[in-house]
Amino acid sequence: MLSETPGTGDLPADVIALTIEGGLEKEDVDRAMGLLDAAFARGGKVHLFVEVRNFTGMPADAWLSDLRHGLRYLTKLHQFGRVAIVSDQSWVRAASRIESALLPFVTYHVYRPGQRDHALAWARGDVSDPQPPALQVTGADGQGIITIELNGRITPQAVDALADTIVRLGGEGRSLRLLAKVHHYEGFDPALLLNPKYVELKLSLLRHVARYALVGGPDWMARVAALADPLLTMDLRYFPADEEAAARIWLMEMNGKG
Question: Rounded to an integer, what distance in angstroms lies between the CA atom of residue 2 and that of residue 213?
């Protein structure tokens, strides 16, 4: 079923927001293409926000209608602007990335459901960066616990912000404790290997952080934490995603390496 996305506020005239849930019928495809036709007729760029939930496919007549319209739009690719695809299915996100790579002039940015608000803001033109910050400092309390949330791919900009926070708080003479909550990890930008801020961050951790709790993330992070802990001057421990409370208690215990 296709519907215009609720809760998107007053959209600019050049932005179309649609939600696809379950299957798509030919009437749904024709309706979506009618909205695109009307937007293209106004001239200028057309920006799309499409939220796909539990997509189950299309019957043959819907596929044929989609193909027919798609071929017609090959002459209008230059009019596509920001295209944001949000989906709860990894195969839909992967297919969107492949389609984006195959179409000249059109770049899709693909998002998981937790990134929906940022995706909509980007499609609307309210924010300039297509991806939300993957590494965010979400808390720094009076007990010296810095809370970090990781959701995506680590960029040099994210490392800069974290390094600045650790250096600033560590410079106040505190013995810092780091709580890293890993929601989704997509690796890091290779440019970090050449970024002096990345080296500075590692040194800051050694100088200022007494304990580091890693909460959630893929299973291999637990193995890495266990291997690295004996090599570090700070304490490092991994906790499953549902044991954040235990991680906080451990962070405030006496440091066993000092």
Answer: 44
Please say whether the beta carbons of 100 and 112 come within 8 A.
Answer: no
pTM comes to: 0.65
Spell out the per-residue pLDDT of the chain, length 258, in tens: 888 776 666 788 889 999 999 988 999 888 998 998 898 898 889 999 999 999 998 889 888 888 887 788 888 888 999 999 999 998 888 888 888 887 778 888 888 888 889 899 999 999 888 877 777 777 776 666 889 888 877 777 777 777 777 777 766 556 788 899 998 887 777 777 777 777 777 776 777 788 999 999 888 899 988 998 888 888 999 999 999 999 999 998 865 554
Domains detected in the chain: 2-124 (3.30.750), 135-251 (3.30.750.24)
